Each structure stands twice: as structure tokens, then as C-alpha cells.
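User: I'm putting together a teaching handout on how multi-component assemblies are represented. Below are the sequence lines for each component of a complex, exactly as they appear in our records. Could you produce the 3D structure of the whole assembly as C-alpha cells, so the students can see both representations side by side? Please keep the chain order the same as the input.
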Amino acid sequence: MIRLEQVRRAYAGREAVAGVDLTVERGAFCALIGESGSGKSTLLRMINRLVEPDSGRVLLDGEDVRSLAPEQLRRHIGYVIQSVGLFPHWTVARNIAAVPALLGWERPRIEARITELMALLRLDPRLAKASPASLSGGQAQRVGVARALAADPDLLLMDEPFGALDPVTRTALQTELARIQRETGKTIVFVTHDMDEALRLATQVVVLDQGRVVQDATPSGLLAHPADDRVRDLLGREDRGLRRLALRPVQSVMRKPGPASAPAIAAATDCRAALSRMAELGVSVLDVQDEHGTRLGSLHLADLIAG
Amino acid sequence: MIRLLRPALWLGLLLAATFGMTSLRPLFTSLFPLLERPVYMQDSFAALLLAHLELVTVASALAGLIGIAIGIAVTRPWGAAYRGLAETISAAGQTFPPVAVLAIAVPSMGFGPEPAVLALLLYGLLPAVQNTIAGLIQVPDAVKDAATGLGFGPWRRLWQVELPLAAPLILTGLRVSVIITIGTAAIASTVGVTTLGSPVLLGLSAENTAYVLQGAVLIGLLALTTDAVFDAIHDMLA
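Assistant: Of course. Below is the structure of the complete assembly, with chains in the same order as your input.
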């Protein structure tokens, strides 16, 4: 889907991107992670030509992006930024309709798409006529994501989309994004400096440092075999074990149902939350149940740690 | 409707003063008993008002168009290098007294409306340039980045996003420009253009205070009416 070949870009003599090769497969959820100044945003903005590389090539489905007019290219790539950038003089509905309007869609088709996207992003339909100034931060970014998805692009670029939100709203939007990606199968390239966010959402984590790729791996691969100390630092040395647990659902390590007296835990929980629950209750066995209260199995502390 | 009330009131007052000035002869006679001719009669006040409006409209429209064009140009990536220069030149245009511009321009352009339009245009340029720049640079970077990233071309982004967001400030600049032009246009009468300044200038040279008062009152009312009209437009935009 996306191939970056030896791309470089310097600003005032300093290389922001210093020779990066990267492949992102169709349907992948790729997180670009690194400290400020690691070149992750510059790399992202090369994909839709907001930044032109000094050398190297960017290919989309085998086609060099430079062979396409920038406006045409961008209308077929969703784009979401941290500060959202809704057009303050337009209603929510008109903001969402921005790209379909550029593409010259018919009015009824645009109206139908607005309704569909507001439902997908769980936005109250009454907000359609609202002004962006009246929205909360979370609502505004939902509109931002809806606007990016409006023309149904195959690829979505997101530059720290949830970085400015409070933790509760951020978690809610991460969950929505994971659901939307599951439902639509979009390819997403996502810039973040939040390792928990990267591990939680991505299928491919690309760690950048000083404009170079340090490691390109799956979340579990990254946790199991961090390439060097910089990756270990980003993963948080003390938290690595817990982060690995967070990637695993409890169902993958549970045994047959045991004694009914153990405290219950939902089947959708991850192993880190389960461990926390054990520590909180002072027990070493939990009873795994689905949403109807059916007992699915039992979870043992020894299995959690051994897994 | 309420927002049109204020401009309508001022306009009513301006028209009443324009058409009723000659009927106020007894008032001016009692105010200035020593004057032989207490009311300006060379032209009708309606003709003076129309001529004044025409000069102001041409000069302000040119100042506005050129000012907005300069403001747009120096806020584009290709024109950014000239921003300082444009601001300096338009500021110099306003520091330079319009009377001096007339004095310099008349020998080459001759008497008549051309040097007057030039002097007024230079004088009114600064607010239009400055406010267009101020309006365009206060558009948030995030909004511009989003517009570009979604596939707006540079001109479409300017027209659909930047100019609407800059409109209130640009309008304020035009308002200042037009109002100072209304006041300054009076000096055009020194180069033979008929304006509401004609009774003022004649009154000053002939020591006829009544003429000065008549011209000045109408210029003041015209400025207040125009200001109220801009206010109403501003309210409609908001």
C-alpha cells in the first residue's frame, strides 16, 4: 500500500528525516512513535505531500505520489491533526461535507454521508447545525475524524489526533477508532508519542529517533525484543512486563472453570487489568464470565505471570 | 430590522440637513448677523453631497481593492518577503500629508479629480493593507493546515476559508479608510474639485464662518451615516 524508499528531508541543515525505508500494508494500523523532533510528523506529512522529501520516493499502491496533483492526492487521503482545525465559520455538517463538496458530489449523496458519519462517530444528529466553537474537545475531534473519512478514503493519516484530549475522552476515542478500523478496514498511519496508545491500537509500531527507524515490529514483537535502549526507554523499563500483559486478553490464559467462589472478571478484560484486580482484592484466582454471567473459565496468577 | 434603524436615522438627518440647509437662512442670519450672505449658494448642497460621495467612492474603492490585494499578496508564501516593505510604504503614504501630495501631483497631473483621487487613495491605503494582513495572519495555522491537508488548493483555501475568517477585520480596515477619506476629501476643493469642502474653503478665505459650519456639518453627518452603515454590515456578518 505505502512504500517509503530512502526518504530524506532537512530543515536548516538538520536532517528531520534521515533516510527512511518503510512499508505499510493495506489494512494495517501503523503507529509512528518517537520523541519530539524524531521526524515522525515530517514522515507522515510526506505521504500526502504536505512535505516534499529532498530525496527518496513515496509510493502509494506502487505509484509515485509526485505523479499526482497534490490537491487530487489529498482529497483521497483522510487527514486528522491534534489541533483538529475545524473551519470555525462553517457548521459541523458543512465541515464534514468539505471533501465531498470539493469532489463535486450531489447534494443528496452528501447529506446521506453526513448522517452516516455522524452515526459512525456517535455524534448527536442535533449537532449537525452547531458551530464548531460550541463543541467540547472530544466532540470536535470526532467531527475532525468524520471530516477525514467523508469521501471514504482507503488511507487515513493522523497526527497525534488525541494528544490534546483528557485521558477519559482519549480512551473513548481510541476505542471508537479501533472499532471504526475493524469495521471499515482502512489503512491508518498514526503519529503518537504515547506508547500505551501505540501498543493498544497499532498492528505495526515504528520507533523513530533522530529521523531514523530504530525498530519496526508488531506490538508484541517490540515488547518481547526491543532493539536497543532507546526502545526500552520508550517502553518504560519498569512497565514492560505490565505492557506485555496488557496486549493479552484473559481468555488466552484461562483454565477450565474452577470453584464458583472466586471474584468475577469480564472476559473482554486484558491480563494487566486482571493482575491489577487480583492485587486489589488480594486473591490469586478470578472467575472469567461473559456479559451474561456465564462462567467461561478461571484465571490463575501463576498462568498470568508465566504466559 | 433593528440593526438598520441607526443608519436610517443618520441618513434621514443627513438628507434633512442637505435639502433643508437653505431654509435655515433665518437661523444663520441670527447666528451671524454681520454676514451679507449667510448661506452658501454657489452650488446646491445636494450637488455638493453627490460630488463628495463620488470622489470618496472612487478613492476608497481603489484604496480598498489595492489594499486588500497587497494584504493578500504579502501573506502568501511567494509574497511574504515583501510584507515589511508593503507595510512601510503604506505607512509612509499615510504620514505624507494629502495636501503635500496634491502640491506635488498637480504640476504633472493638472487640476481636477485625478490628483485628488491619488492623494486620498494613498491616505486611505494603510488601514486597508494593515487590517487585511492582520485579518489573514490571525487565521489559525491548524485551520489552514487542515484545509490544505484535505485538498483545498491555495486560491480555494484563500477564498473559502481565509477571507471569510479575515472578513470582520478587513471590514474594520475599510471602514477606517472610508471614514478618513470622507473627512480628507474636503481638501480636494483646493485643486478645483467640487466637494462638501468647497463651502468650507470659501468660508475660510472669505471669513464666512457660516459657510464653514454648513460644509463641516454635512461632512460630519456623512461620516456618521457611513459609520452606521458599516456597523450594520458588521452585525450582519457576525
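A couple of points students might notice: DSSP finds 13 helices and 13 strands in chain A. The CA atoms of residues 284 and 301 of chain A lie 5 Å apart.
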